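User: Okay, second chain of the day. Same drill as before: sequence in, structure tokens out.
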Amino acid sequence: MTNTYEKQKRLHHDVTNVGLRAQATAVGLIQLCIELRQADVLTEAALTRIKAAIGDELAIGPYRRLASRDHRSEIDARLDQLFSGEQKVGAADALDFVTETDR
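Assistant: Same drill. Structure tokens below.
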């Protein structure tokens, strides 16, 4: 196991224990990042790192049954849409990354 992987797993555990899986928290974070980026307070590089951290969590979290390069690309594309303000965060099931064949 790599040090980065272990750090990410520890962060996942800590975030889960705090209860930050709530959709309201995610919506708030996305909106905050959009506002900070529009105000030129948050650089594009910083936003990329934030999205990468979220993508890492989604890729290793218990909600993913299958980890592959294609699925990671899908996660990254969805995060890009969310953080650009192009896609609204709706019901949690609308954001489900597990396909019907995975169920």
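The longest helix spans residues 44-60.

User: Thanks, on to the next one.
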